[in-house]
Amino acid sequence: MATVTVPEVERENYLNKHYGIGSWLLTTDHKRIALLYLISITFFFFIGGFFALLIRLELLTPAGDLVLADTYNKLFTMHGQVMVFFFLIPSIPAVLGNFLVPMMIGAKDLAFPRINLLSWYLYIIAGGMMMYCMLTGGVDTGWTFYTPFSTVFSNTKVIEAGLAIFVSGFSSILTGLNFVVTIHRMRAPGMTWSRLPLFIWAHYATSIIQILGTPVIAITLVLVVAERALHLGVFDPKLGGDPLLFQHLFWFYSHPAVYIMILPSMGVVTEIIACFSRKRIFGYMFVALSSIAIAVFGFLVWAHHMFVAGISVYAALIFSLLSYAVAVPSAVKVFNWTATLYKGSIHYDAPMLYAFGFLGLFTMGGLTGLFLAALGIDVHVTDTYFVIAHFHYIMVGGALMGYLGGLHFWWPKISGKLYPEGWARLAALIVFVGFNLTFFPQFILGYVGMPRRYYQYPPEFQVLNVLSTAGATVLGIGYLLPMIYFLWSMRYGKPAPDNPWKAAGLEWQTQSPPTTFNFEKEPVVTWEAYNYDEIDAGHKQEVHVAG
Amino acid sequence: MQATNRRSTLPDSTAAVHEHEGLQNPALLHHFATEEQQRDSSNFGMWIFLATEVMFFGGLFCAYLIYRRMYFGDFGAASKSINAALGATNTAVLICSSLTVVLAIWAAQTARRGLMIGMLILTMLFGLTFLGIKGIEYKDKFDEHHVPGPSFSFEHVPIPGDPDQYANPQHAQIFFALYFIMTGLHALHMVIGLGIFTWLLIKAWRGLFTPHYNTPLEIGGLYWHFVDIVWIYLFPLLYLINRHP
To answer: More exposed terminus of chain B, fewer Cβ within 10 Å: N or C?
Structure first.
């Protein structure tokens, strides 16, 4: 045939089925919406990162010489708000979850595709409001909006920031609602609850928090905005209001919000560890139910943020004990992952390097969390860099490592291209080294007494701060690298096979990139998740077809 | 070209069925296998949304309960200044509207199109009545300077059961702040409900609801009932906490 020299025609898939800006902005395909989210959250990640860079530059020297004190207050506030509400909370659920939840359970789409698109538009509207807030002067309350500072004293754009986060909350709620309904109602025949990939269990637990936690911060922000605009007195002690009530309501969401960030990451890491150690996950049901347990316990620990705020000793005791309880399901996960690695044939591909990074950093973040749950130590290190280091180990070392690992793991499926493995391993290493160099010194800084949220510090803290800033620079390079080679691979990368990792999971049983409806025919599942022993023994995983 | 090739080798069964043969309900969306799955998903989705709503109002109820306990007498005095008769009327109006919603769904299920449309219109009339009465109440509060803000005034109002003591105006202001935010958000939900019911009415008018397919009515009804239930809690908490002699 004359056409034999022409390179193979690209198969039809969700990326090339329709062209044009309209086919993206009006799409209801969960995979395209995932990519829309990927682009938008990457944008906000770099904005938040830019603020972090300025913070670290200011802290390079003990004197406040780069920015004014007021500017510094705005920098750390907006770094926190952008990173928490516009990057970390949507990161894994809205990008990887959106892409993978329907595929992993053998569905054509999420249960409510139009609501899924709506949630992206809400995110974009909220993002626009946040940009407006930042460009017209920003906000300086700390990401926590503590009253009465935010409602009475601050002269910055508190109302604008509050409303932006209010709107972004609804985007998060709708994503969670969509996932829960999809996981309940859209599973393919044979995809029982005990055969679900643990990524799905993790997203189910996350969605519960999104559905039940987010509305509480929404109403709290309504009260803050109303209080600031009209001086109602609800949170103003001068008018008889109770600022502690604000903190209770705020942390009722904002503590579980940490689990919105970390649980999906745990789901990603579970998939990666099973695949790259070629083993079944040790104790499947324990890992699955520990996700639910973390979501449930997560709602009962919020007041450990308020140990020095004047809550009663008895309340503090109980919240301290409950905070310890969260360590149990978290430890179940870590031990089960290590037990899965035991005697596995471990491959050190880039996603696995991120998973290892997650294991170490999350464990350190979790253990220092126990320090903070202990009343005595918490009083000593409250509002110091020890707290900063602790939650960055969880949010950046945990959630972000999982996100990057997942992005590498599923990149062949998402883009249909292979990323350059050597560069990816190097980037993973740089991220790990840079991260520890940035945040480990902060544990020490906090322990010896450097408070958070100041732009000056005594000269004896300088060495550790210089180390931290140097680490942040390395970390920044580590984050730029994947963005560069992912973009590069979209054009120049080798075409990915359907299942480059020989992984279990329905998403790998269809073509890369998938077609718009994911599967040619509805799959019928007759095997457990993570049947790597069977896959490696050569049993071909037959995708049966319904009907 | 490759697209058409693929189409011909792999016909998408569901799409083909509802586009060409018309065997299934045209309202069945492509990504659902059966109508039952679609109906279950819609219903379940609405229930979860209502769970979100419970938590949304829950934050306010929590704030209310804490301040009621802190400023017990002041809240009693402030509550007494609200017109309970109007509140009771509104409660009755909303309960009637819930009945008409149920009747509209029943009419759809039993193919009584006229009754369904009548009941939908009646529901909306009840909703408008509620908002009208609410407006009168707000007007009264405005005239009495009970709206929180610079012109708020609640001087020399005795605390019920303790006539020698006057209510603290600042604490009463917190009651009214919560009163306006809670009833205001509830009224906003009523307005959204009226929007949903206008949309349902148009669909019903066009004959889209049959005994076979009436999911939008069902989930619209769920939402309406939920908004009623919120009122059922708001009414005693805001109007009735201090009515004994």
So the answer is: C
pLDDT at res. A243 = 94
To test the contact with chain B by mutation, choose from A216, A227, A516, A522 the residue with the greatest count of B C-beta atoms within 10 A, namely: A216
Listed in sequence order, the residues at least 6 apart from A426 whose beta carbon sits closer than 8 Å to its beta carbon are A481
Cα→Cα distances A135→A81, A296, B108, B135, Å: 14, 39, 53, 39
Domain that holds residue B22: 1-31
Radius of gyration of chain B measured on its C-alpha atoms: 24
ipTM for this prediction: 0.92
- Same structural domain, B189 and B225: yes
| Number of structural domains found in chain A | 1
- Whether residues B30 and A112 touch (CB distance < 8 A) is answered with no
Rounded Cα–Cα distance for residues A284 and B89 (Å): 56
Contact between chains at A212 and B40 (C-beta distance less than 8 A) = no
The residues, ordered by sequence, that sit 6+ positions from A401 with a Cβ below 8 Å of its Cβ are A265, A354, A355, A357, A358, A361, A362, A431, A435
Cα gap A81→A60, rounded to integer Å: 23
Torsion angle defined by CA atoms of residues A474, A478, A481 and A482, in that order, rounded to the nearest 10 degrees: -170
A-chain residues near B67 (CB < 8 A): 242
Whole-angstrom distance, CA of residue B60 vs CA of residue B83: 22
Phi, psi of A384 (to 5 degrees): -115, 175
Distance from CA of A102 to the nearest CA of B (A): 10
Q: Does residue B206 lie in a domain region?
A: yes
Instruction: Extract the tokens encoding B154.
Output: 């609640």
Is B52 inside a domain boundary?
Answer: yes
B133 touches chain A (CB under 8 A): no
Domains: count for chain B: 2
pTM of the entire structure?
0.93
The answer to whether the CB of A529 falls within 8 A of the CB of A504 is yes
- Which pLDDT score, from 0 to 100, does residue B243 have? 74
pLDDT of residue B162: 82
**Residue tagged 């009970």 (tokens):** B146
Residues of chain A scoring pLDDT < 70: 1-9, 539-547
- Find the CB nearest B148 among A180, A232, A242: A232
Nearest to B30 among A17, A108, A520 (CB): A108
Is there a contact between A80 and A142 (Cβ–Cβ < 8 Å)?
A: yes
Give the domain extent around A353: 21-545
Structural contact between residues B70 and B146, judged by C-beta atoms closer than 8 angstroms: no
Q: What is the structure's pLDDT at B150? A: 87
Kind of pairing, strands B162-166 and B158-159? antiparallel
* A111 → closest Cβ in B6, B41, B71: B41
Residue B99 pLDDT > 50: yes
**CB distance A216–B49 less than 8 Å?**
no
Residue contact A185–B2, C-beta within 8 A? no
Which pLDDT value is given to residue A135? 96
The predicted-structure confidence for B160-205, as pLDDT tens digits, reads as follows 888 889 999 999 999 999 999 999 999 999 999 999 999 999 999 9
- Picking from B31, B58, B171, the nearest residue to A216 by CB comes out as B58
- Please name the residue of chain A whose CA is at the shortest distance from the CA of residue B172: A240
B131 and B75, same structural domain? yes
Would residue A2 count as lying in a domain?
no
Measured between alpha carbons, how far is A402 from A365 in angstroms, rounded to an integer? 14
